[in-house]
Records
---
Amino acid sequence: MTKLLNWLLAHHRVSFLAVFVLTLAFAPGVPRISFDTSANMLVQEDDPQRVFYDEARETFGDDLILSIVVKSDHLFSPPLLAAIERITGAAESIPGVNRVVSLSTVSDLRGRDGFLETDYLVPSIPEDETAAAEIRTNALGNDLFQGEVISKDGRTTAVNLFVADDPANRQFNQQLVDAVEQILQRERKILGREVELYQAGNSVLKVSMLRSIRRDMTLLLPVAFVVVFATIFFLYRRGSAVVIPLVTGTISVIITVGFMGYAGIPFNPITAIIPILLVVIGATEDIHLISEHGLALSRGKIGRAAVESMNAKGGLAALLTALTTFLGFATIIGNAIPALRDFGIAASFGIAINFVVTIATVPPLLLLLSPRGDHPTRAGGDRQAPWLLRSARFVARFGTRHRSTVIALAFLLGILCLLASQRIVVNTNYLSFFHEDAPLRRSFEDISEQLAGANSFYVVINTGEEDGLKNPATLKAIAGLADFLSNRADKVSGFPFLIRKAHQEINDGDTTFHRIPDTTELIAQYSILLNQDDLDRFVSPDFSSTCLLARTNEAGSLHLRMLANEINGYVEAHFPRGLEAAVTGELILVANGSDQIAEGIWYSLGFLLLAVFVVISLLFWSLKAGLLSMIPNIIPVMVNFGAMGLLGIQLGPGTFSVAMIAFGIAVDDTIHFMARYLKELKTTETDTEAVESSVMKEFRPVLASTVALVAGFLVLSFSEFASTAEFGILAATSLAAALISDLFLAPAVIGTVPLISSWDYLLLKISPDRLRQSQIFKGLKPSQIRRMALTGSLLTVNQGETVIRQGDLGSDVYFIVEGRARVLMTEADGSGERTLGEYQRGDLFGEMAFITGEPRSATVVAVNDLELLRIDEQALNRVRQNYPRIALVFFHNLSHLLSERLKRTNQQ
């Protein structure tokens, strides 16, 4: 990774040109981006009930309803009845409207002198108030109308448009709502302000979603930019710290949105947050690289040397953090719900592109933007505010010196979050995308209070034979289901209600006849007398199947799934053999998708945990490292679910991905911390010092990146979408927990269970077989070698530096893990130095002073960067006391090695 970054730095014109060409290639896709608020985005593509629903729509028409609501204290006056007829006629001409049910189109079933009249309720516009009052009496006296086209108090009516949505036309709902609004505007001018006119239904809901998406895109995205970069500038006070993330974020958004346009991935309430995600998440990796560059400047490196140092120390961590975040989004791709799958594809693509843009532009931009100078301060050194340094020092010491307390508190928090998460409800609700006080939700609630609910679904019953519905026993079973459903929905309409009403009316309105007739002949006769439009709504042409249209004010998948289960249970218990029933509808298909959400979140999260575990284990060549990395990063996930339970936030499409995103982002800081810890191990004496030094150096980038993330996600809480606002709140809460976990829990865990021991590091560099064959460890078992290695400490010596100097006092011995060292001896007359030889990987030196106690007999200098295992006299004495057999073999090897070297020295 370092070589790639240095190559890109050396050829920065090529890398800039490549990014420019990539941006130009995808930019034309930005205008092609579409918007989708249809229910199809929440319906499983492989749902077998989808085919059944399409067949039901072909037979009975669509279950989608757009209601035009008319409210007035004088609803049945001639002018208003005329207005209702005008609205009905105009609505029938709108493309996509298959049927309109209103006071002007419903049939008023009435028995007169043994005959059944099926005239329209309003056969013509009444000329006076007396005729209008008669119509009012007939309307309120017919239970078939109540809840569907008229309220019980006679002050509210609905013109219900049954709509055939066109999936191929993503502008359909907008065109439909606009056409209805034009009708309403004309009527408002005629009727005045005393009459309230508005429209409600799924089409209105989807159009409102579209408006809110565009509003969020134009308002929240710029605000997120400002908040993120203001946070970065406050903590770094460097122009490059703001300019660079701004450049990489803007380019990443353009390329990703262009990709979505080309790929046909639309903006919807879920994918609309991707640009903000890229701005927020993309800035965090830039922060870590900028911070590493600042540390290099503070160490005295300037110009290209500082950038190359950043590449060497931060390049691999940048790759791995991008990989883990990418995996966090990629796990969502396998979801069967289109909106979530599209989110996973677009977001993971965006993270990958952001990484490419980052490595191609950040190093050369840092080189170009850094002020010129031969001193690190003039070159933009890493100057931290005193409060940052004090905070970093406090955090570093607290995590290592109060380990037990930190771990205990984390364990307690985990238990509390687990308990709170038991309250989480899996629910998909179109209406819940909006806040409770949104005007749209209030209009839905108003309809539900005055009329039947604005949401509908079908129960399709198939008899399996022609004219099966004319069988009295069959129709009575269906009527029983209709009554059962009527107690659970706001309004149920269907063939059984028409037959019972006809049977009652033809018998002079006697309520004892409000039942299904006992003979096939009567049912057939009533079917002939009924209005054909009414029959077409509920009965197939061959009378083999029928549907019950249920309307409810509940749109949540949880309620609908429970209701569907109750219906299926009733059918199983009461329907005769051969009579089948199935619940279907757009809302039902969306409800089925909720089960996929519940299953998918555990699959995606489990896969992500495993993937991150493997990545970190491979990075450090240690399963223990992989396991330890899970501990601090599980906390944000648990906090996410705990917050959902406490705040009553439901698990749905809008909140599905928070856990994966929180984990994928949180693990980034852990990787940076662990990578820093490995570097600090080489230059510090103890694990505790390494941990504290790592926290000190990673404090500001971790703080800056997380605070920027939290602030950016909190911007989403101002969205018009309740689901997006909940996403922002949950993400901000989870990442705040990740910050605390990374700064306190990670050091406490690693300080308690060291991430990597001297033995682990030896095995990274030297194979076990080669260790056993080395002169100093010869004759020892692997477990014994391990015990010896654990007594030492790891040390790094830079090229050209002196490890030991001739004449100095010292008793430490050094085992070369990596690199070469040259042995020099000063001539007796002081005229110069001569080379005695070189030590290589696997060699030991410093043993003579250890055995004799005399000053060092030669100088040892690093030919290249050295990695050493240093074992001091106290450590060897502990081995001698506690493991005498190991000490016996070790000292025997030491004596043998010393003897051979003395012989070679004498020969020279």
---
Amino acid sequence: MKAVNTQTGLELTAATNAEGYYRFVLVPPGAYNLSATAQGFAKAELTGVVAKVGQVTDANLTLGVGAVSEAITVTAEAVQTTVSQPDAVLNETAIQSLPINGRRFQDFVTLTPTAQVDTQRGQISLSGQRGINTNINIDGLDYNQPFFGGIRGGERSNNAFTIPQESIKEFQVIAAGYSAEFGRSSGGVVTAVTKSGTNNFRGSAFYLMRHKDFARKNSYFTGLETFLNGREVNPAPTQQQFGGSIGGPIIKDKAFFFGSYEQQIFRNPRQVVFDLLQNFTPTAATQEAFDYYKSLQTPFEQTNDAKAGLIRFDYYFSEANRLNLRYNQSDNNALNANATGNALFPTTTSALSNNGTEKDKTYSMTGQLTSFFKSNLVNELRAQYTRERRPRLANTEAPVVQTAIGNFGTVRFLPTTQYDWRYQVFNNLTWILGNHSVKFGAEINHTYADQTFAFNQFGYFQTNGTNVATLLDFLSYTPSITTGVVNRFDTTNVTYDRQIGNGRLDLTVNEFALYSQDSWRIKPNLTLNYGLRWEGQFNPAPDTSNATIFNKVRGFNFPSGHTVNPSYIPDVANQFGPRLGIAWDPFKDGKTAVRAFTGIYYARTPMLLLAAPLNNFRNPPGDVSIRLPFTVPAGNLNNTVYKQLKLIGIDLNSFALDKLPVLTVAQVQSVANALGLGTFDPFTGASVITWANDFKNPKSYQFGGGIEREIGRGLTVAVDYSQVNTFYLQRNRELNIPAPRIRTDDVAQRPFFGLRSGTPRPIPTLGSIQVRESTGRSVFQSMVLRANLRRKWAQFSAFYTFSRNLSNDDNERDAGGVAYENGFNLASEFNYGRLDRRHQFVANSVFFLPAGFEASTAIRLLSGLPIDASYGSDANEDIAGPDRPYSAPGVPFKRNAFRNNSQYNVDLRVQKGISLGEQRRLIFSAEFFNLFNFENVQLSGAQVTNYCATTSQRDCGFGAPTNANFLRIKDVTTGNYLFNNNAGSVFQMQLGARFQF
């Protein structure tokens, strides 16, 4: 048997066994001509056999009796009859032709079944799993952000590409049931391959313009302009993208190169406007702060520029050895992209000083060596070194002042830096033994991260209340007035937080894996796929040198029954994942596949979750703040920020609002002595996070099955079912909280903690103490209907998914905070998960029309996600998670009991190609995003998610909602849009030109 790549000349040979089975393994994606010869038989040929990423292509040839020179041409089969799990592949035609707004290749994944964008972090979710628990592979190696989780680039990858789309040849998505060769995902895996050069020089150059004037506003945005007193809204800022690629031979049939580069330029003009001051008339008591806020109302430009490049080198030493090397790099620079408020608004209430720059740089170097020791014994060695820098810079370094009017000064969490690197070595050995195709593999994955992150590095003044005059009075120094607040911040409604800890952290995590798997062709029409994978995650140990905090927490018996040892983060090594699947061709014609699979799968834990437990108990602790004013005995008049700082010689009246002092840690701590508080614990009120000593990585039990049938030439239909039952999902739990009690005068009989009413915490000298534990749970079930068409004149894929996703916690690697109402009883938490979409219909098509025209579509129709109804205040006084209404005494609302609006999006691309010679072509394109300009308003914010009109009505929830605007798009009184809701993208048009040669 011989297979020859039609573009590179790569030749592969294999021999059949006694039963006539043959197999080519580790075949680079592409088109091949296949031939079979045997002495005394006619030669059989099969042309244009396409090898796709991650798929098995069946090609059956029959040798007929006749002259050796006689050729018999046959065709390849369309259905994978030896594969146990369904998949979806987006080929090179789809990637080149489908409309895509932003050129992030991962956005194509949302055109496959069960895939969606996680609403919290913007990462790809498969089979209802958290986005950070999806594994992304490029060229067989991890392309994940080890610190934040998700795809390389983390959340910045949602705004800019990290690898050129021009370089992606195709990719495969397996939503559930993937083989033992892959791991670190509780749902599915995305496997992409990059392009390589060929024996012909080929290249392209393109330019795309999505001008702001090409967008069309819908009624939501015209209403928004009215709401903003006629200010023009720019719903789709101008974006330009350009780049190209080139590839070809260095030595024909032996050495090849490929390179690509893309760049993005994005500009969004915006304005700082403090809306609450628009109709306000200042007085002597408010004039200073009023004038200062007005001086901050300046225009600015928000950017989002990106560059990405890739170089790949392929070398065929011989038929027995081939090597490929790849280097890619990206650079994202987004000025004034922090604290921007509602991104759809042309204005923000954050001053330019309360903004910053988002940066991200990635570097990846990979290599793969494939060696054929024998025709039936093949070794594959893959390795990579990747790193990423994620600095987030502040526009200024000064204390931040936060009021209901707006904010100025340094963003609370800026500046920060994050740097990580990974080296990964993966080796597998494939052994073809009779009817068995056996693989053995081992992997080392070493990750390192360094982060500097801390809140309140320059001080944080927070003022409570919403009355504009009162707030301005607090900020103004007005010695001439006789009523009101004379001194700056001289009121108990102002607090001051100052970071006293050390925000720097570096850590190392090691992951190892071993696996073996076999594809056993029991009969020509029956294949058994089985395997076993082990993987382990080995974590660092915390620094617990801060005996003051450590000794208070270690071994303490909290009212919830929990005890913790902050000095211990367990390794997760007992992770064995057996996999089993069958594939059956009942009619033995290669046109039907009946499939079933089951297995155990594990996901990794992102390094970010380790950060706080590693550094919160060291000396000085990481990211811990101290708060003024300190509590003083009754009768002590030094009970405000102003008065307590005045005791140590700092008079805030002597500093202008734009030059507020950056206090040292020693200065803030010295206030205690000046107040005569005696022995003062400098960590009083500190909030810390630790790690559960029995923590485990997420573990899912998966099973499913289905049937696929070719019903016409190039047309297949399928139906399949899958279930993913996931345990040990990470949850944050509050420990330093008293046991709840029921108030006799509470008609709702709500468990009450009373922290705001004076009930002390179990460890009264500390604030919140949270533990990261693995007690979350989810169950995902789906039925998928599939249709695929591949013909010369068109290709088409459509998927309808009917699913249900239940869970009891949905946090997406939250750095802190809890997501439940009552940690002593989580029964009401198990309900629809945040990602529960009951219906999804996605489709894509490419039609090749006469006269060089092409038309392609991308369709995404999604039913609404759940909404969690809120009571509207901290009704149980736990100073923690959301409080929900009660439907009867002692009966809280279920989590996520209501539904958001559906989302509909249809994109269209039309292009015309003009031939300029045998190999040159000029293509003009027009892309239309949200073709029908659907509003796609998503309900959001307290104005529409609060069930109750007033938080004093404890029986709110016993009947209909008392908030008239609950789950509404428009105000019931005025008929105007409620703009705390979020609208989807408007109709946008993008024009482009491409030159191919």
